[in-house]
Amino acid sequence: MAEQERAVRTRRTILLAAAKVFQERGYKAATIAEILSEAAVTKGALYFHFSSKEDLAQEVISSQNQDFTVPDCPSKVQEVVDAVLLHTHHLRTDPMVRAAVRLAMDQLADGLDRGAAFVRWNEIVQERLEKAQAQGELLPHIIPAETAGIIVGTYAGIQSMSQALSDYQDLTPRVNALLRHLLPSIVIPSVLASVDMSENRTLKLHNQLTAQPA
Description:
- The chain is mainly α.
- The protein has helices at about 1-25, 30-40, 45-50, 55-65, 75-95, 95-105, 115-135, 145-165, 170-180, 190, 200-210.
- Helix 1 packs across helix 2, helix 5 (about 75-95) packs across helix 6 and helix 5 crosses helix 11 (about 200-210).
- The two termini are about 20 Å apart.
């Protein structure tokens, strides 16, 4: 058991080191030697867990959706907003998520499946929009699959702009502005009036999830 726990810790250490290097250098410029130095592990230890730099990067990309949970809410529009708020919080505070997003947006990352992260986010949003539509929360013209793509795509652009201009320091107000502009064209007014997009909502969700037993 102790050996298994040590292996899990070593794997996590390597992933965190890789995330740091990918975040700072990008996929193409990052090297295995830099990741080994950052992780302070042997080449053998790294290759025991990961077969290549590509394998490491793919695991980092996948990490942003692993264990991502949005608490149930009577309003499914609120759940869409909550998913956006939680991801924004993680992007500002979690180095692994920051690296995952950089890799997913990196057009020089040849050989990586960068689309999987976008597909998963599209599924998360579309599923909740479909439920919102079934509950009568959306305007009549909305097509959930189409609208999910717009939300995910515009968010990707907003976060990319925020990263370039302020290293995500202004991400929260930019995302709030995005939601305030998009939601009135998606959600019926009576539902929109009760949607909470505040910083307090984000903190409440984060505290709720971190308080849950593993």
